[in-house]
Amino acid sequence: NAGVTQTPKFQVLKTGQSMTLQCAQDMNHNSMYWYRQDPGMGLRLIYYSASEGTTDKGEVPNGYNVSRLNKREFSLRLESAAPSQTSVYFCASSYVAGGGADTQYFGPGTRLTVL
Amino acid sequence: AQSVAQPEDQVNVAEGNPLTVKCTYSVSGNPYLFWYVQYPNRGLQFLLKYITGDNLVKGSYGFEAEFNKSQTSFHLKKPSALVSDSALYFCAVRDTGGGNKLTFGTGTQLKVEL
Fold it and tell me: DSSP secondary-structure letter at A73?
């Protein structure tokens, strides 16, 4: 099993450009998440998808959109990139059953720089 | 709202000595608590979690954590540190009251020296 995979690993954008970050998991998990990691701020939740066909905002959703394409894939889109979106982006997935303490498993991350 | 505090940005310890990385939390109900580790340029790896029951939780790589409800703490410990334990450690909390969103602390950089 590859676990959680993310593409691309690195990306440099100019202000105003758009891009989509891809995430896929092969663990048959029902929930998927997008986080951003900034120095001194830990991980902050951008969006999550509790199950196929649903998405919800997290702590910092502004400037982002998501698509839960199917059970395996969850993409994050930046429509008009801004320097404030320079960060490392992590995708995670988990199996949530009846409110149990599900463990989230993380991908390797995408390092994004917006000039 | 739930929150997590990791009061130390960095912890330095000599190899072979015991280590402690501190975490305190705030939730409205009962907590689910997690520790993750991040090595340079890698994603987060799960170490251990507390759900209920025994206050001492054992996890991967010889790590353990002690849940203390009265002090709202969940400190990560290891009896004998290794240089290879040097990494960034994150504590996270989830409220059992509903939802499946984790709130992470800001992280503690652990440096183990020879």
Answer: B
